[in-house]
Amino acid sequence: xxxxxxPASRIxxxxxxxxxxxxxxxxxxxxxxxxxxxxRRVAEEILARFGRVSCLVLxxxxxxxxxxxxxxxxxxxAGAAVRVYxxxxxxxxxxxxxxxxxxxxMLGIPAARIEDDPEHLTLRDxxxxxxxxxxxxxxxxxxxxxxxxxxxxxTTVQQVVEAMPTPPVVVAVDCASGxxxxxxxxxxHTLTPALTITFACAKRGHYIFPAAGAMxxxxxxxxxxxxxxxxxxxxxxxxAALIHNWLPLRPAYSHKxxxxxxxxxxxxxxxxGAPYLASAAAxxxxxxLVTVATIxxxxxxxxxxxxxxxxxxxSDAPGPNGAVVASEAAAQVAKALPGYxxxxxGCGLGNTPxxxxxxxxxxxxxxxxxxxxxxxxxxxAALPNWAQCxxxxxxxxxHPAEMAxxxxxxxxxxxxxxxxxxxxxxxxxQCTVLLKGPYTVIAAPSGELAVLPxxxxxxxxxxxxxxxxxxxxxxxxxxVAPFPAACTGAWLHGMAGMTCAEEIGVAGVLASDLxxxxxxxxxxxxxxxxxxxxxxK
Length: 537
Hints:
40% of the residues lie in helices and 16% in strands. Helix 9 packs parallel to helix 19, helix 12 packs across helix 13 and helix 17 packs across helix 18. The two termini are 23 Å apart. The chain contains 19 helices and 21 strands.
């Protein structure tokens, strides 16, 4: 499934990155060569974007500082004015790995040590004349609060930069110092970069907030690690090229039957909008036939506004806020389902004893690939041993509170490590789990985890989740397998939200505004996948 995922799209933990480097070194691609390539790639990126400008390289101990020293050498050799400021880095020949510092001294590159600059006078002077500040202090090594000498150094940099009328561009090497590359935690002393250049693979922290919102543009640079070594990494970020490969084909000689049938068991008198949004989304994403299974009072409202679907009228029952689907309607839905490739269950059903019984009874029948959302998830959580009732090829689309109910844990426990929880529960429940939030993650039962790099307030609107459920159901109806359907649906939905944010604004976007954007997003991908990123990094 991951054959088309590029190494640069894989996401690793710090330990996984260290293991990749060890395997590369054992295979003959040495640590020294990787450091040389890393520093060179940073310098090349700076030169390509900013030219031969004045650069101050902040150098710490360890490999990240070594990358910074190599970067400084390449910048100098290209004609840039370079200065190097050292924190906790020994300049003794015995400690100078590969002689990188000695090479700078031979080239006459100015260098200063923080131990010799207790008032930070040199640091301030060099900052004020720099156009680019390279942060090579900690890299992936930040795993505890910043304090002492480093905290003072970073505070000085922040103060000077904020006071400058034209502040320098901050470029982070691997990750900003103070960013935890595993958890996404962010120390208050962290310099916020405009550009982060990481190596071989992105790191988990690059895609977990708050760090994800404080890394600027992310570039993943090649340092020569064999792509075959990266193939085992099962976590990756979604991008336009990958989604392009998963889009269902649309041959010109097709008919509606070629694009599948999806049924949506949705709606109640209290929530008549949800079936509209979900069923319209299924059609907008390309399903050949959409059938809405709902109660008569919802049908009377919906059919006048949405004439394209067919309708299956279901028995109703009284609810606390109007009529809901009755439990006996499960047999009606099951009888009509043969020939349908996908079922969407839950949008706007209402969370009542009658709807819980309807969901339980429906799950007792053979079902096609099923997307369960909203009140379908709430009904699941009320069932004992509910995971044993799931149909094959099931997709669950919870937000954190729904996930907490499904798992029997607190919302805080869900948020503590959304990625691994989604991965673990997808394997336990043997279904695809799309766990919503910034950033949404999609987990397959076989262990793959995709990250959607989209976060916009434009999607923080009632009904947006109904649109997503309909999109995924419409893709499944067209023959896309559950995990790629969930990934592709999340991408199209997210890019529609980003487009709405650009064209309408981040406030005031309605879920129905997303609908017209869905065909446009597909068309952009089909015509030019390389530029269809929207606002994603």
